[in-house]
Amino acid sequence: MTATTAEIATPSGKHAGNENFPVGSQLIRADLRPHVHAFYRFARTGDDIADNPALEPDDKVRRLNLMQEVLLHPTRDDIPEAVALRRSLAETKVTPQHACDLLTAFKMDATKQRYADWGELMTYCRYSASPVGRQLLDLHGEDSAGWFASDALCNALQVINHLQDAKVDYLEMDRVYVPLDHLAASGADVKRLDAAAADGGVRQTLDSLLDETDKLMVDARQLPGVLADFRLRAESATIVRLADRMIAALRARDPLAERVKPSKRDFLFSGLEGVGWAVVVGFRGRRAAA
């Protein structure tokens, strides 16, 4: 069975410029940016399918399975985003597993509306977030020993995104990533996510999840120091700084009352700090080698 993009895709209009964190920015080596963008376009197509409220869960899963079929088939050419990524992976010798893992997460989005606890949410992040960092490290030829720090950073970014969009996800898709046990411990429930502002129970829940995210950031901050590629080191350090800023912003502001997102100032200062961090790490490495 074959299908075209027009038959399976449900474009949302979102693109790399809409994301909270850099996607294939100028910090990434120019020769690798097209491969980063190919991975992003594949992921964007899958995410749009999973998030489309007009599609039934079974139809979403069918479309996502078709994307994987084309990605893994050597001659299928009916879904351009999957074909482009397949060619990118062949050129760069990167495994398709990371892309397949993302599709697993999108299928979870299609069929799973609630998460019982932090562990269940982290299992979801293992498929929805960790593969992005692993793909980037593999693309740069980095040692897989760095995956632990990359996973921590990507999972933290995913939780940050969930907290930013907690109200929208609930109202538009009846999807709640806020763990139910955290809500219950604070005397809250999912229905309070549609309030005009976070009350005491919801605020306590958000803060407890930000505490968990801070724990992830302990490992995440090790990522720049384990990377060999200077540009990737600077990119990762920039994202770490942006994540820190977003955690602080979500503590100080109410994501139920407003859209909490990074400002141009946040991007600028995080970028400057990231490049500086990368330089310092490289200098220390040269001194150690000497």
Walk me through this protein's architecture.
The chain is mostly helical. The protein folds into 2 domains: 94 residues, no CATH class; 177 residues, Farnesyl Diphosphate Synthase (Orthogonal Bundle), CATH 1.10.600. The protein is built from 14 helices and no strands. The mean pLDDT is 91.
CATH class of the largest domain: Mainly Alpha
What's the overall average pLDDT, rounded? 91
CATH H-level superfamily of the largest domain: Farnesyl Diphosphate Synthase
**What is the N-to-C order of secondary-structure elements (H for helix, E for strand)?**
HHHHHHHHHHHHHH
Write the layout of secondary structure elements.
Blueprint: H1 5-8, H2 33-51, H3 57-72, H4 80-92, H5 97-111, H6 118-128, H7 130-139, H8 147-164, H9 166-173, H10 180-185, H11 200-220, H12 223-226, H13 230-252, H14 264-289
Helix pairs in contact: 2-4, 2-5, 3-4, 3-5, 5-6, 5-7, 6-8, 7-8, 8-11, 8-13, 11-13, 13-14
